Amino acid sequence: PGWASGSGAAMWARGTWTLLAAVRTGWCLLPQVGYLHPDEFFHFFLFLFFSSFIGDILNLQVHYPWEFLSSSPCRTVVFPLMTSGVAYWVIKSLQQLGVCSSCINSYTLLVSPRLLFTVFSFALDYSIYRLAPFWEADPWKALVLLAGSYVTLVFYTRTFTNTLEGLLFAFLMVLVSSRKADRSVAEPTSSPLIGIVTTAGFFNRPTFLAFALMPLLYWAGSIVDSQKSIKTVINHFLKLVLCACFTAVVFVTADTLYFTSVGLDNLYSIKNSSLFDVIGQLHEKMIVTPFNFLSYNLNPHNLALHGSHPRVTHFTVNGIMLFGILHILAIIAGFKMLKKYIYQLIWVKLYYRGSPGQLGHSEGNPTLLLFYFVPLAFLSLFSHQEPRFLIPLILPLVLFSASQNRAGKWKHIIIIFNVFGALLFGCLHQGGLIPCLFHLEQLVHSLEPSNHPRHYTLLFAHTYMPPRSLLNMKKTDTHIEVIDMAGSGEETLCRAVGQQVNNLTCNDCHAFVIIPGTVRATITKCGVSFKNETLIFPHLSMEDPPQIPFLFSGNWRSQLGLYILQLDRDQ
């Protein structure tokens, strides 16, 4: 009944969207424990340690990703500063004002930037509501389809650059899509904003150009069609180019100040220099992060370091993994439209000797399919293909699926698919690591005599890279050591564990091994004993998946758990 027409269906859709919006916000605050990818933490948590101009925000230890090192700057610092940096500044200010005595903890460090991104995610809903009438889709059905997608619930509430890329793509589509009251296409008037958004998206992720290509071509076509004067057309393009150049200057200046000694090591000397001296230094050491990004990623050897995939992975695997039946329906519709267009083109040329303009109107909207498949095709040119690279495509896909009620007959499959995806990626996938860090943060900061601090060694094995920021370690905290063994083999792991046992020479020295239950047996072969074991449930490691027979045994919880093992110094 929810997919039927009528006022009752509209009320059902509005109520469903409201419920899903509440779930999105509440699940962020709960919080979500699924760990999707290290980039969530290491691309935006960088500004826990941001020290250019504004001083330390939280004075915490963080791990610098290679993209943010001054030797290889490939990411802009503007967006992390404007998002996570602002969120952390707020919680620090609240603590300094005495609003709360312990505002800075592992929970707030995780949730505050996520909450900001969750608020931003509703811009996607607004874009769908604005765009649906333009693309002949029902607004509320499209909103339910968007809000019910696990991509929105999980990915768009996380601090990924891909999330910002999707929001900027949505904003760009709104800017290029407008109608008059009589439903005719309105004259585009947003040239400056289009230039700003396109440039900002390029600096956030240079792959944004793949998403922006079709909207920009659509906008250019609308400009040419609606203008009779070549002077007016040139004026629109000049406004776009000038605003794009100004935005680029802002990003380049900010990145240069941060990544070079101009902005960090010689900050105080700059204050005593003339404006022309400062400009001269900036010009000499100018950093354009997107060009560095492209230079690195266009090298196949560099991409191979991060994992190489077949060129069809986005089409055949990632699209289905993210969007399920909607991706398959889009492919089928695309082939049908292409087949029909080619057939009609041949028919007109051979029998009527006319032009393609005589082609009949095809079912559906081929422009939306181009908005979906053109970026997909460009991203498929690169050998490194991760599912999250495609999350901006949810906007044109939802609009296409909501038009002509394409998704209606598949609603049960869509619901089951998204519930499964939300549980898998929002709860299970590496789901024990964040609760583990919450537990360890309380442990290492427990009350103790200040003249005899305890020393903690935390050894992580066969997990994703642990975000050290969630341990809430100050830069002066030298009594906490984090060792990331990644996916080390049995021999290397046993050697490291044995070394930690030998280092337990004081009464206040403690060492913990954090390892998934699926490789728990590896530790037993190392010949060490443990005096405490803590099981964090659930935790699913796709790199070390559980064996199916064990999931139906009495030991199934250990296969879906993460162990915190305290080494015994008295063995």
From TrEMBL:
Cross-referenced Pfam families: Glyco_transf_22 (PF03901)
Pathway: Glycolipid biosynthesis; glycosylphosphatidylinositol-anchor biosynthesis
Protein name (database record): Mannosyltransferase
Annotated keywords: Endoplasmic reticulum, Glycosyltransferase, GPI-anchor biosynthesis, Membrane, Transferase, Transmembrane, Transmembrane helix
The keyword tRNA-binding is annotated on this UniProt entry: no
GO cellular component, one term: endoplasmic reticulum membrane
Subcellular location as annotated: Endoplasmic reticulum membrane
GO molecular function: alpha-1,2-mannosyltransferase activity
UniProt GO BP: GPI anchor biosynthetic process
Family (UniProt): Belongs to the glycosyltransferase 22 family. PIGZ subfamily.
Protein's membrane topology: Multi-pass membrane protein
EC top class, as a word: transferase
Organism: Pedionomus torquatus
Membrane-spanning parts: 42-64, 164-181, 193-219, 240-259, 315-335, 414-440
Protein EC: 2.4.1.-
Chain's gene name: Pigz
